[in-house]
Amino acid sequence: MDKMYKNDDVSLNELIQVTKDFIELADSLYSRGKITEIEYNELTFVKKDFLAQAEANKENIEVC
User: Fold this and answer.
1) Which of 6, 23, 31, 46 has its CA 20 to 30 A from that of 54?
2) How far is it, in rounded angstroms, from Cα 63 to Cα 29?
């Protein structure tokens, strides 16, 4: 059972990092004028929400 949690932690950490990288890319594209504010918001809205929830879950897993 412990092995499953360790794999879940790695997967969660990977998802968090990929999401952060995606948001950074969107930030870069927006700051350089490659995408509009509407496009930026559409690209990042769900990702930012996911990131907040995933980081909260990560903290809960680490506490347990």
Assistant:
1) 31
2) 36
Q: What whole-number distance in Å separates Cα of residue 2 and Cα of residue 31?
A: 43
Rounded Cα distance between 42 and 33, Å, is 15
| Burial class of residue 26, CB neighbours in 10 A (0-12, 13-18, 19+) | buried
Contact criterion met (CB below 8 Å) for 9 and 18: no
Task: Share the mean pLDDT of the chain.
Answer: 85
Taking residue 11's Cβ as centre, other Cβ atoms within 10 Å add up to 10
Q: Which residues contact 5 (CB under 8 A, 6 or more apart)?
A: 61
